[in-house]
């Protein structure tokens, strides 16, 4: 038999499987709808169309210089999300970063004020 030629048995098996495929697929879908966990798994793995992967939206924001700027940027991102201009995942990452900045800003401001007050107190006591 020449190379690449199908055998009789292979042709018969292919023909039978092609004829039975629609019935099998319908059975899997019917069972999946009836709650069969294995049929659902088969459907999701082999039959369901692939979900489109979201393309990340580039977000251009300058680094905030104050808490007010960070809050304004969060509001800007929330507006973009509400209008459907930004994807949730990218926005969540940026908002989390801005939130971290906001949480750290008051602490940094307080530390600077304590340092300033500490220096003023040292100057009043005559220490450098």
Supply the key terms.
128 residues; mainly alpha; 2 domains; 4 helices; 70% helix
Kindly describe this structure.
This protein is an all-alpha fold and 128 residues long. It folds into two domains: 40 residues, no CATH class; 58 residues. 70% of the residues lie in helices and 0% in strands. The relative contact order is 0.06. The mean pLDDT is 78.
Overall shape: it is: rod-shaped
What is the succession of H and E elements? Answer: HHHH
Instruction: Please tell me how large the radius of gyration is.
Output: 32 Å
Give the CA-CA distance, first to last residue.
Answer: 100 Å
Q: Helix/strand/pairing class, anyone?
A: mainly alpha
Report the strand count: 0
Number of domains: 2
Largest sheet: none
- Uncertain stretches of 5 or more adjacent residues: none
Strand coverage percent: under 5%
Integer average pLDDT:
78
Helix content: over 70%
Q: What is the tally of helical segments? A: 4
Outline the secondary-structure elements.
Blueprint: H1 8-33, H2 37-47, H3 67-82, H4 88-124
Summarize the structure.
The protein is mostly helical and 128 residues long. 70% of the residues lie in helices and 0% in strands. The N and C termini lie far apart (100 Å).
